[in-house]
Amino acid sequence: MGNFSTRPGPKNIAELEKLCNFSREEIQVLYDNFLKMSGGRSTVSRRDFIKGYNKTFSSGDARKFAENVFRTFDTDGNESLDFREFLVGLSCKSAEDLPSKIEWSFKVYDRNGDGYISRQEMKSVIHSIIRMNGIECNIQDTVNKLTQDLYQTVDLNNDKSVSFEEFKSSVEQNSTLLDLLQARPPH
């Protein structure tokens, strides 16, 4: 792959600004972070991404959650991220508009990409969120209770799978639900 230490040029930055909700300056800072994470290479491996992501959570273990995030960023499925995937992924993850937040959150929970969230997928992601945040609790009981409560809320037709439409409808009716699903404390 080789080293990739040259900064994106003005043409590339203008193109990237159109793709995401970051300013020119933010793109430069994110590019520097990308280079640190990749060791100066043109791509970041799954392992390096997880390691870098985990460093941002000093209170817990973010590795499992980082795997889910990586999966949503790796749009071509080649097990590595180029800067464009990295930037667009971060843009989706940090989006301010509700439709983008809902879509990204759904992709995090739909681990196998079949268009539905199973109870096991939700349980796995909730478990990774609790570990990431370093919450002191009986993890298994907490995961089971949260999974049961959240799944009951979003599985609107009680068919034991959550479609994107069910997920979207539930979140639109209760925005606090999105904060819980994205591992953020409610406002």
TrEMBL record:
Classification via PROSITE patterns: EF_HAND_1, EF_HAND_2
SUPFAM superfamilies: EF-hand
Domain of life from the UniProt record: Eukaryota
Molecular function terms from GO: calcium ion binding
One Pfam family here: EF-hand_7
InterPro entries tied to this protein: EF-hand-dom_pair (IPR011992), EF_Hand_1_Ca_BS (IPR018247), EF_hand_dom (IPR002048), Recoverin (IPR028846)
Residue span(s) of domain EF-hand: 61-96, 97-132
Keywords linked to the UniProt accession: Calcium, Lipoprotein, Metal-binding, Myristate, Repeat
Gene3D superfamilies: EF-hand
Protein name: EF-hand domain-containing protein
Species, as recorded: Lottia gigantea (Giant owl limpet)
